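Sequence design from tokenized structure. All designs in this work follow the same two-part layout: the structure record, then the generated sequence. An example of the structure record is given first.
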């Protein structure tokens, strides 16, 4: 098995091949086909295909969003615990969800100061990630 490429701001976004390159394109193609079929052959069956394709796309997106929300909740908890252990006086309650999720990439040495800066400076997640000097990779996020 090959070595992992070190994770950085430039390459930290991840793709799920099954979702991004199979399920999503095929469901979109089905929807386009169903709409074209409805235009060429109007009727109840064609409407049913459009509704089915739309429901499939919505189901795929909702299933992914549920998984991402669960991951976000776990990351928030993990980062609150990590920050509390590293700096008991850290402004944990002042940090928003997106800030906590972005802070997961900061190494332990940088985390307390960056969390303080994020809370007082109202940094957005992108600004937090750009401020990180030593990247702490997260290879588990999908």
């Amino acid at each position: 098995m090959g070595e992992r490429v070190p994770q950085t701001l430039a390459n930290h976004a991840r793709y799920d091949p099954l979702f991004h390159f199979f399920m999503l394109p095929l469901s979109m193609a089905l929807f386009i086909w169903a709409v074209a079929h409805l235009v060429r052959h109007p009727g109840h069956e064609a409407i049913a295909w459009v509704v089915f394709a739309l429901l499939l796309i919505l189901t795929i997106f909702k299933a992914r969003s549920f998984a991402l929300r669960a991951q976000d909740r776990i990351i928030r908890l993990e980062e609150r615990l990590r920050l509390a252990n590293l700096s008991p006086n850290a402004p944990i309650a002042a940090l928003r969800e997106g800030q906590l999720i972005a802070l997961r990439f900061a190494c332990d040495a940088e985390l307390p100061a960056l969390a303080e800066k994020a809370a007082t400076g109202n940094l957005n997640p992108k600004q937090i990630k750009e401020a990180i000097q030593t990247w702490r990779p997260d290879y588990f996020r999908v």
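The chain has one domain: 17-131. We note this feature because it recurs in several other targets discussed in the main text.
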